[in-house]
């Protein structure tokens, strides 16, 4: 119960941050030249001033910046994200259509990076200064230093063009109407390369953090005591070392949630995934302010939710957080 109370307190404390992010993004977008109406008029090949004035009145762009911000926050209080000028439908509808690919990509990439980062970090720490440690550390450095878009393009060339094992992009086979398990397998097949591409950089970070944390915990007194009691090395690692060594990795999940969302912009563009990242890019190009602010709002909620879950997990792993000791 105390764990839940602590997590709820931190969740409430994040709400002012959410408002500051939205207000800052709104004001920052005002510095860019042009607005939604300018983008619409350009798509229509121009138009008269009366039409432009009517459109600005319709989208609430005929008042000052402060009034626009206030009106937006008031609408947001009722969960009204506004109307997308480019897509011709409510922003909430547009985001809900694009949200599943991004959530699936983030969940798959995070699971891939966390699991293999954990395993490789443990192996490197158990074989420190030996060839497995050198090999894993070198691979981690390569993964971290290489841009994700290059990994994506090379993965497409190798696995899609040359070997023809996996699809090059998209969120499903548009030529087929799969249902049930077949549809799930089809989506999973299309997510293999994007997950691999987005997860490699984070895998490199996690394995380095896990390796360093394992080496630190292995040198502590309680580990020597466990060994002195005659426990096997496997039991010492799994029952005593691993739980304490995982704390920095769990913390890093919350810190890197926003970074992973930012990385999905590149990955979704490379693999033509219809997710929030690609939608954000399209909204910036089209100057669709309402859609872009809605994406920022939903992305901030995702990051806050992930950190909320991380706080609960962290308190379960380390009870001293709840007790305050």
From TrEMBL:
Q: Where would I find the ABC transmembrane type-1 domain in this sequence?
A: 99-314
Q: Name one GO cellular component term.
A: plasma membrane
Gene3D superfamilies, per database record:
MetI-like
* PROSITE patterns in the record: ABC_TM1
Major subcellular location class: membrane
A biological process (GO) annotation for this entry? transmembrane transport
Q: Where are the transmembrane segments?
A: 103-123, 135-163, 187-207, 249-272, 292-315
- Has keyword Nucleotide-binding? no
**Which cell locations does it reside in?**
Cell membrane
* Lipid bilayer topology: Multi-pass membrane protein
Q: Which UniProt keywords apply?
A: Cell membrane, Membrane, Transmembrane, Transmembrane helix, Transport
Q: Does the keyword Ribosomal protein apply?
A: no
Family stated for the protein in its record: Belongs to the binding-protein-dependent transport system permease family.
Specify the protein name. ABC transporter permease
The species this protein was found in: Neoroseomonas lacus
């Amino acid at each position: 119960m105390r764990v839940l109370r602590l997590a709820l307190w931190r969740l409430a404390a994040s709400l002012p941050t959410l408002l500051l992010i939205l207000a800052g993004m709104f004001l920052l977008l005002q510095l860019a030249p042009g607005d939604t109406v300018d983008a619409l008029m350009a798509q229509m090949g121009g138009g008269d001033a009366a039409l432009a004035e009517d459109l600005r009145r319709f989208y609430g762009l005929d008042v000052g910046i402060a009034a626009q911000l206030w009106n937006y926050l008031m609408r947001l209080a009722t969960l009204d994200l506004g109307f997308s000028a480019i897509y011709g439908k409510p922003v909430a509808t547009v985001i809900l259509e694009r949200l599943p690919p991004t959530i699936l990509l983030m969940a798959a990439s995070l699971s891939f990076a966390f699991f293999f980062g954990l395993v490789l970090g443990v192996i490197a720490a158990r074989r420190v200064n030996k060839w497995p440690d050198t090999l894993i550390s070198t691979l981690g450095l390569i993964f971290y230093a290489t841009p994700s878009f290059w990994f994506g393009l090379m993965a497409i060339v190798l696995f899609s063009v040359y070997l023809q094992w996996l699809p090059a992009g998209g969120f499903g086979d548009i030529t087929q109407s799969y249902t049930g398990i077949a549809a799930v397998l089809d989506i999973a097949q299309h997510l293999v390369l994007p997950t691999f591409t987005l997860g490699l950089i984070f895998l490199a970070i996690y394995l380095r953090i896990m390796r360093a944390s394992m080496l630190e915990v292995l040198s502590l007194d309680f580990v020597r005591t466990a060994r002195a009691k005659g426990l096997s090395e496997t039991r010492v690692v799994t029952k005593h070392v691993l739980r304490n060594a995982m704390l920095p990795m769990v913390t890093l999940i919350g810190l890197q949630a926003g970074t992973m969302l930012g990385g999905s912009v590149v990955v979704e563009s490379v693999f033509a995934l219809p997710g929030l990242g690609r939608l954000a890019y399209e909204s910036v190009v089209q100057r669709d302010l309402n859609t872009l602010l809605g994406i920022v709002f939903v992305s901030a909620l995702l990051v806050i939710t992930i950190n909320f879950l991380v706080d609960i997990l962290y308190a379960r792993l380390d009870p001293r957080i709840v007790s305050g000791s």
